[in-house]
Amino acid sequence: MSRILVIDDDVDILSVMEILLTMKGFSVETIANANNAVSKIENYLPDLILLDVLISGFDGRTICKEIKSNHKTSHIPIIMFSAHPGAEATIKDYGADDFIYKPFDVDYLLSRVNIQLGILN
Fold first, then answer.
1. Eight-class DSSP state of 32
2. Using CA of residue 20, residue 30, residue 32, residue 69, what is the dihedral sign?
3. What number is the average pLDDT over the span 24-47?
4. Average pLDDT, the chain
5. Cα–Cα distance measured from residue 56 to residue 63, given in angstroms and rounded to the nearest whole number
6. How far apart are CA 92 and CA 27, in angstroms?
7. 3-state secondary structure of 56
8. Which domain, by its residues, includes 78?
9. Contact indicator for 22, 52 with CB cutoff of 8 Å
10. What is the reported pTM?
11. What is the CATH number of the domain that holds 102?
């Protein structure tokens, strides 16, 4: 079972993603506060991270760069998401593997998750 970590300050999005991904057979952990995100990632070692670009007081792109710069976590694919226009243009510079616009289509989200995890539909 693939382990997915979702990081977002919107508890409604966390709840929806947790329910959706759990129903699809994934083990899901969520983080609503980015303060301890990197240490949580090092301890949980997810197979995939879904990360919001803007998280109350934090820039998710900076967190992404930190994850990708850490030898313990650099291999973990990261899908970033945002409702902000232009956010997609900057995520590759920080090491993100993929991007999804909010609000997201459930089928599209699942297809991107499966692609990053190497799961064939």
1. S
2. negative
3. 92
4. 93
5. 13
6. 26
7. coil
8. 3-117
9. no
10. 0.94
11. 3.40.50.2300
